[in-house]
């Protein structure tokens, strides 16, 4: 009997020149035995500690607002770039007064006209649990500070879960999660809103799918959709990839799990408080063009409020989805799940009428799995950090008496940089799909380590006129060119004939 050797853990400092150069700051490239699988410092534990460290740095960055910026004058929280929704919504959505989300109507004089909580059900539950854990009562400064700290602690747990799950999606590539743990945009945006709850469940869903548990994966994706809308988009890539591989039973299990878990969470609230439950969906539909989107530039340039922006944004998104469907069914080899997942979520935020700064959290884990290369990731993160500073300086310009900040033209440039960074990473991932020999994950002979039942499965349906490239091996060229630099191929491990092996002594 012949079976392939287990692949050794990939070492980014060997295959990635940017990681190798950066490693000189901490003693040089990672050695083969630097992190032992049985020692105290496993890859997952190191990554968890790094994620906690970066999260704490992000909390420290919010210190000027924690002490005064959220409470005394609107301008300080923008000039110090430390804004967060969390302390404002503690009072503004009735948590300080003990109101029940979705059931109790919020006084409009304290909520800015919002009668009910405008977040999905699981996010509302998360906010309510944090309110229960917040000591004291009332909407004073100390309670709002405590509420932010409680939420930050809970969101830190979500961040660690996300990083650890990403580290386990690709069994032999745990260090692909290091960009997630070290992402500057994660530290800066983690406590602006509650997006990390959905991000953690999405990463758990991807992990379950990679381990061949489609029902559990669907349950987690359904729960994530009950916290944010975007996780539902991942069912599209699963549909296309299962269609191409003929894995309908697994897709059906994932779809059933997602629908079932979403209904279990939502139906009780829908029946008890239908008006409050529907607020998230009506608010999303009625919301005008907002910060960070291409549509905002068009609105500001033309002076038109674009009343039909929902139609335009939805049409453009659906057109992009059609293109991704053709890509998934015509690519030389079936795309990896992480690649299509990143592309569809990126398409959603690029075409959406609002691209809030914390939406980058949705993309960070997917980007690290889709294209685990530091150069592209850092280029994208640089654009996100520039936008993070740009939006707060623009709001400072709008909310301070002397207009200290970034004027409209400068903010529009920041939006373009923001969108261009995301589009750049999309183009790199598209190149990897169309030219699989450039895909870092596949250079050792892998097919789709995150694909679960799709990993190594033959195609049963494509839109190609000629047969798709077979698996295994993706025969690497004698040398491949990555950004103008010729590099040697990475050979897949040789098989071992275990029939000739001598059994170990008992």
Features of this protein?
single chain; 506 residues; mainly alpha; two-stranded antiparallel sheet; 23 helices; 4 strands; globular; disordered C terminus
Give an overview in words.
This protein has helices at 12-15, 17-23, 43-61, 63-69, 76-79, 85-92, 108-111, 121-133, 141-169, 178-182, 184-189, 195-210, 214-225, 235-245, 248-272, 274-277, 279-286, 294-302, 309-330, 337-351, 360-370, 374-399, 408-434; strands at 2-4, 480-482, 485-487, 495-497. The chain is mostly helical and 506 residues long. It has one domain. Helix 3 (43-61) runs antiparallel to helix 9 and helix 13 runs parallel beside helix 15. The protein starts with a strand and ends in a 9-residue tail after the last strand. Pfam families: GT87. It is a multi-pass membrane protein.
- Roughly what percent helix? 55-70%
| CA-atom Rg in angstroms | 24 Å
Strand order within the widest beta sheet: 1-4
Q: What count of structural domains?
A: 1
Based on Cα principal axes, name the global outline: globular
Biggest sheet details: 2 strands, antiparallel
CA distance, first residue to last residue: 22 Å
Count of alpha/pi helices: 23
Number of strands: 4
Q: Give the overall pLDDT as a whole number.
A: 87
Report the order of strands and helices: EHHHHHHHHHHHHHHHHHHHHHHHEEE
Low-confidence stretches are 1-6, 474-486, 489-506
Main structural class: mainly alpha
What topology does this entry show?
Elements: E1 2-4, H1 12-15, H2 17-23, H3 43-61, H4 63-69, H5 76-79, H6 85-92, H7 108-111, H8 121-133, H9 141-169, H10 178-182, H11 184-189, H12 195-210, H13 214-225, H14 235-245, H15 248-272, H16 274-277, H17 279-286, H18 294-302, H19 309-330, H20 337-351, H21 360-370, H22 374-399, H23 408-434, E2 480-482, E3 485-487, E4 495-497
